[in-house]
């Protein structure tokens, strides 16, 4: 008797859904499993926020531009699809913090804003004498009494004081999430800091002991981030090329999911067709859950999660028209400074392969929690605002050769206090009430490329376990 073929449908063609589909199909083909997988993407392009713009020899990332080397899954995926020889490290160099109207070098030894070398911290102009003394109280303060979640701001203000938080910790940590450090969840963003405090009491001493030197810089010239020489879009393209074309359906939206009496699911598609599935992986932003499951209470807390709109602004110049005299790769902006940009990367220095000889490429970021209105301005208005901010830190003699503005509306989910508990409850409710449905992606378990890829791999394991498919042979 022929074994029944199980059908798995992945909804969402961002990097999480793409990873799920790729690795699941890889296992199916290698072990000749009685399964098939279909990837549904509402737009006509895979990759989500991973988009690379190519113009006049420039390689410009419109979304993420790199990933941490120590989180290995992204480099492993690139190698698996034949791009291992295209991986490249960023050029190591000083990073700066813009406070008021001055760029200050980030203190040597600072790990995500936490000082691990006292000398550079005491000599920096980033903080007043009082601010430095307050930060040093970390050595004598007791551990936090809170055993539950708390905001990043509350945690770091208690240990290091307001000044260090505002001028160093906040620009680095909240910039990753485009969020408010006083709302973001410690346990859902940087739980390692909580563990360090529990184990060592002093955050400064604990970070000094637990941060390997190689995690700070691999060498004097090589940084800790990786990207691909052809842009991250080449990763999306390479993964897509290795998935059977018949397994990818673009331009088709899932409008509803019905749980049938036999345990399977019926997916109602925007093209009028229905698709049956034995298991469903939902790799979509949290806002989309409301449309897929309008009458289910399990997603109520998740659907109310806030998301921030941001924009990236890439500007190309002739090298003669811009003076970037500092040795480094860019800067972040203190919350205490009156600027619209939140950070600027001197991309031609950090990623030399992206920029033709004799040219300069600057990549700036605007938009964050409670300051999103700028994202809705016109390209011309955004360009002017960004140029005005940049002229405080460098001499710009001419307009850009061209500017690429990319808006990401509601693109940055906010992991506020209690996020981990809300997500765990959602997963538990889904397991009980919608067996075989797995919800995953950047809204839930991490924003970075490796985090999303890890979630895609976990979804593969979840599906195989649910369908009782033995892959140990």
UniProtKB/TrEMBL annotation:
Q: What is its EC number?
A: 1.3.3.15
State the signal peptide span: none
Principal EC category: oxidoreductase
**MF GO annotations:** oxygen-dependent protoporphyrinogen oxidase activity
Q: From the UniProt record, list the reaction(s) this protein catalyses.
A: coproporphyrinogen III + 3 O2 = coproporphyrin III + 3 H2O2
Q: Where in the cell is it found?
A: Cytoplasm
For whether the record's keyword set contains Flavoprotein, the answer is yes
Main localization, broad class: cytoplasm
Which cofactors are named for this entry? FAD
Pathway linked to the protein: Porphyrin-containing compound metabolism; protoheme biosynthesis
Q: Which UniProt keywords apply?
A: Cytoplasm, FAD, Flavoprotein, Heme biosynthesis, Oxidoreductase
Gene3D superfamilies given for it? FAD/NAD(P)-binding domain (3.50.50.60), protoporphyrinogen ix oxidase, domain 3 (1.10.3110.10), Protoporphyrinogen oxidase, mitochondrial, domain 2 (3.90.660.20)
Domain named Amine oxidase is located at 15-464
Q: What does this protein do?
A: Involved in coproporphyrin-dependent heme b biosynthesis. Catalyzes the oxidation of coproporphyrinogen III to coproporphyrin III.
Please report which protein family the annotation says this sequence is part of.
Belongs to the protoporphyrinogen/coproporphyrinogen oxidase family. Coproporphyrinogen III oxidase subfamily.
What protein is this chain from?
A: Coproporphyrinogen III oxidase
Q: Which organism is it from?
A: Lederbergia graminis
Task: Report which gene this protein is encoded by.
Answer: hemY
């Amino acid at each position: 008797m022929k074994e029944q073929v199980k059908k798995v449908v992945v909804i969402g063609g961002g990097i999480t859904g793409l990873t799920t589909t790729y690795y699941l199909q890889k296992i199916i083909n290698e072990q000749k499993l009685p399964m098939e997988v279909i990837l549904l993407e509402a737009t006509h392009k895979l990759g989500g926020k991973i988009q690379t713009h190519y113009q006049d020899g420039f390689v410009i990332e419109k979304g993420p531009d790199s990933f941490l080397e120590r989180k290995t899954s992204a480099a492993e995926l690139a190698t698996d699809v034949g791009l291992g020889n295209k991986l490249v490290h960023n050029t190591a160099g000083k990073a700066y913090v813009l406070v008021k109207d001055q760029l200050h070098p980030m203190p040597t030894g600072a790990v995500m804003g936490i000082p691990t070398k006292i000398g550079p911290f005491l000599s920096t102009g980033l903080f007043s004498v009082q601010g430095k003394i307050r930060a040093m109280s970390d050595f004598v303060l007791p551990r936090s009494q809170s055993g539950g979640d708390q905001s990043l701001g509350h945690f770091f203000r208690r240990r290091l004081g307001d000044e260090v938080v505002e001028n160093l910790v906040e620009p680095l940590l909240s910039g990753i999430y485009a969020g408010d450090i006083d709302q973001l969840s410690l346990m859902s963003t940087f739980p390692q800091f909580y563990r360090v405090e529990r184990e060592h009491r002093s955050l400064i001493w604990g970070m000094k002991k637990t941060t390997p030197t190689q995690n700070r810089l691999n060498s004097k010239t090589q940084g800790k981030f990786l990207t691909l020489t052809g842009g991250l879009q080449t990763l999306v393209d390479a993964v897509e090329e290795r998935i059977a074309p018949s397994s990818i359906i673009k331009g088709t939206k899932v409008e509803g999911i019905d749980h049938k009496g036999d345990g399977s699911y019926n997916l109602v598609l925007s093209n009028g067709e229905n698709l049956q599935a034995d298991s469903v992986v939902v790799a979509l932003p949290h806002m989309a859950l409301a449309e897929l499951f309008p009458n289910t209470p399990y997603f109520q807390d998740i659907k109310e999660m806030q998301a921030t709109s941001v924009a990236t602004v890439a500007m190309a110049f002739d090298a003669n028209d811009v003076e970037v005299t500092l040795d480094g790769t860019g800067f972040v902006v203190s919350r205490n400074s009156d600027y619209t940009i939140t950070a600027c990367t001197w991309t031609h220095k950090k990623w030399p392969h992206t920029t033709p000889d004799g040219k300069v490429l600057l990549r700036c970021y605007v938009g964050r929690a409670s300051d999103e209105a700028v994202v809705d301005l016109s390209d011309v208005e955004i360009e002017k605002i960004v140029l005005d901010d940049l002229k405080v830190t460098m001499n710009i003699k001419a307009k850009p050769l061209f500017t690429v503005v990319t808006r990401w509306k509601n693109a940055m989910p906010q992991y506020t206090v209690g996020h981990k508990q809300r997500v765990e409850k959602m997963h538990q409710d889904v397991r009980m009430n919608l067996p075989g449905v797995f919800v995953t992606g950047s809204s839930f378990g991490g924003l970075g490329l490796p985090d999303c890829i890890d979630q895609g791999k976990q979804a593969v394991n979840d599906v195989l376990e649910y369908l009782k498919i033995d892959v140990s042979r």
